[in-house]
Amino acid sequence: xxxxxxxxxxxxxxxxxxxxxxxxxxxxxxxxxxxxxxxxxxxxxxxxxxxxxxxxxxxxxxxxxxxxxxxxxxxxxxxxxxxxxxxxxxxxxxxxxxxxxxxxxxxxxxxxxxxxxxxxxxxxxxxxxxxxxxxxxxxxxxxxxxxxxxxxxxxxxxxxxxxxxx
Length: 166
What we know:
Layout: E1 2-6, E2 9-18, E3 25-35, E4 44-49, E5 63-64, E6 86-89, E7 92-95, E8 101-112, E9 117-130, E10 139-147, H1 150-159, E11 164-165
Parallel strand pairs: 9-11
Antiparallel strand pairs: 1-2, 2-3, 3-6, 3-7, 4-5, 4-8, 8-9, 9-10
């Protein structure tokens, strides 16, 4: 596992690629994203901008990555089992060869459920793969601090209209 930090968040990750000759490419990463022990622990919401369709997540647009129905309750924003402030995920995607560079991005924000607030400051990270390469390999695109942009706020509000951003 490789470890990187941005602000109060630390990510431990391992990249995965299965690109045997003559077959489709399977790619992704295993990761754990946690908050610094110096920060008050809050549940986490994860947004995903997938390279390919996975479950109910649509490629080419931000999605709240939890596959739950929209609700007025901000707990519908929380990534599964991220109530204690840690996300463990194993995103996996499948692509045909020759589709160019495919990028998957994530954005993670803290949610104060009691106050119905999604914090403005979070992190973004992701991975990419060149499906046209002779030996495709998944690459980490880095982790950095992020102030939640308006397009991501709209996605969150579509999932839970009764939250504020601070």
